[in-house]
């Protein structure tokens, strides 16, 4: 068996120190999961059906959210026939969706459920090689799509991702957390673990979203056998660029601080309260299909109170700990671990860790111009610079629209009330969703969370 470029403990350490996306090469050469092509999976799953999300192959300025898509239930064998243009597809579940006009995506399918009667397949994906003992396909999701299949640009609230590309290629557009102001975050459609961007990042409407010009896009095309690491809170848009793509994702949970839990609880309380209120502009599909259902206001308030209580209890406990620390002969020698518990200060010097970028670990580079092509991670086509970052030549760029273009047209829209198709009055330019975008902006939620915590302190 060929030696891997990084031992499990080395890979885990790299992930812990990585604060930007990076691609691991030559880490999956002996994984049985490398054989999980569409043909192989279709044979394994036989008559088991999965849900496919269907979207139109067209250029538009708005993101295609899950709530805008159609859905069909089909076996992977039926999907395979459709991708091959078989005559059988003309009478199957994809009959109404010509391959030349539509893309299909079986996304976020839990492998533990798909292969619950073939548990041996869990061992085909060996995340233990990345320093996570016992982690395999059970803690992973399967993604199967066609050319053009995409995931709207979003950030994951709670954890980071390891993405194993198996068949075909996917183009990733990633943006750092500091670019959130440029991404125009929205909670519609609502998904508890994700925040979406209002921008179509590959065809941005820079007249409507001028700040997106400052967004720092990190682009990479993931090749079969490679593993992409996506750090926590990095925005990402993903699109399949080959006729068939198969990948496996492992979402690694990270500890969520209590203030973040309060913010999420507050967000859920506000959005459910406003969107479940009967009104003329509350008829959209605001709840993402990935969510189980709508919580009642009482349930949301109960969860909010529990989140605040968890924060105050931990703070109170920490205060008591520090009182005890003051009685110790050397309080400066006491520190806390990641769980908030006191630990003895390590006197040994902490050695710096240099990330081993090179032919086996490639950082995803930043491209200031969104018209540039993605990073190529094929070692034969890539060039490594002196500082071990990846670069390649670019030909031809498209100028962005000027900032003033189209403003007059936007301003001239009538602010008077109109009538809907049933003769009922609708509101002017400000909708319930506009109100929510303002109320649920990350900065507003952070401020409201702080005020809520301060109020709780005053009541104690």
Explain this structure to me?
α6 packs antiparallel against α7 (about 295-325) and α6 (about 260-275) crosses α10 (about 440-460). About 25% of the residues lie in helices and about 25% in strands. It has two domains: about 10-255, Cupin (Jelly Rolls), CATH 2.60.120; about 260-335 and about 430-460, no CATH class. About 30% of the residues are buried. It starts with 7 loop residues before the first helix and ends with a helix. β15 (about 335) and β16 form a beta hairpin. The protein is globular, with a radius of gyration of 25 Å. The chain has helices at about 10-15, 40-45, 75-85, 110-115, 180-185, 260-275, 295-325, 405-410, 430-440, 440-460; strands at about 20-25, 50-55, 70-75, 100-110, 140-145, 150-155, 160-165, 170-175, 185-190, 195, 215-220, 225-230, 235-240, 245-255, 335, 340-345, 360-365, 365, 375, 385, 390. The chain has ten helices and 21 strands. The model is unreliable at about 320-350 and about 380-425 (pLDDT under 50). The strands form four sheets. A nine-stranded antiparallel beta sheet has the order 3-2-4-5-14-7-12-1-17. By secondary structure, it is α+β, with helices and mostly antiparallel strands.
Topology:
Blueprint: H1 8-17, E1 22-24, H2 38-45, E2 49-56, E3 70-75, H3 76-83, E4 102-110, H4 111-114, E5 140-146, E6 150-156, E7 159-167, E8 170-175, H5 180-183, E9 185-191, E10 194-197, E11 217-222, E12 227-230, E13 235-240, E14 244-253, H6 258-275, H7 297-326, E15 334-336, E16 342-344, E17 361-363, E18 366-367, E19 375-376, E20 383-384, E21 390-391, H8 407-411, H9 432-439, H10 442-459
Parallel strand pairs: 11-19
Antiparallel strand pairs: 1-12, 1-17, 2-3, 2-4, 4-5, 5-14, 6-10, 6-13, 7-12, 7-14, 8-11, 8-13, 9-10, 11-18, 15-16, 20-21
